[in-house]
């Protein structure tokens, strides 16, 4: 996952050729999280300042606020709060969802010919 962030960096002893405003590529290697609740990162949407996912309820889309954690290179994001383990979330929609959107569940986005 490539993401741009602004970070303040401090050196115990800075390199000789360091310039102010220089860009750097940083990779964080975090310890693995075992048995974490996670959803596809593409399922997470932002409404205003709130991150959440859409789920199906009575044939309509319902927005559920969540607190997201770590994101994996496999495209999954840890959910720290806001979802139960058995909650089905909407991963893909052809258009933006809202509370009035009626939804239809399909088994595949593209049908493969037999």
Keywords:
114 residues; mainly beta; three-stranded antiparallel sheet
Q: How would you sum up this structure, described in words?
A:
The structure is a single chain. Helices cover 0% and strands 28% of the residues. It has no helices and 6 strands. The strands form 2 sheets. It has a 3-stranded antiparallel sheet, with no helix packed on it. It starts with 37 loop residues before the first strand and ends in a 33-residue tail after the last strand.
Summarize the structure.
With 114 residues, the protein is mostly beta strands. It has strands at 38-40, 44-47, 50-57, 60-65, 67-71, 76-81. It is 0% helix and 28% strand.
Count of discrete alpha- or pi-helical segments spanning 4 or more residues? 0
The radius of gyration computed from the alpha-carbon positions, rounded to a whole number of angstroms, is 19 Å
Per DSSP E runs of 2 or more residues, the count of β-strands stands at 6
Mean pLDDT: 86
Proportion in helices: under 10%
Strand order of the largest sheet: 1-6-5
Q: Indicate the low-confidence ranges by residue numbers.
A: none
Query: Largest sheet, described in full?
Result: 3 strands, antiparallel
- Structural class determined from secondary elements: mainly beta
Strand content: 25-35%
Order of helices and strands: EEEEEE
What is the general shape?
Answer: elongated
State the distance separating the first and last CA atoms. 35 Å
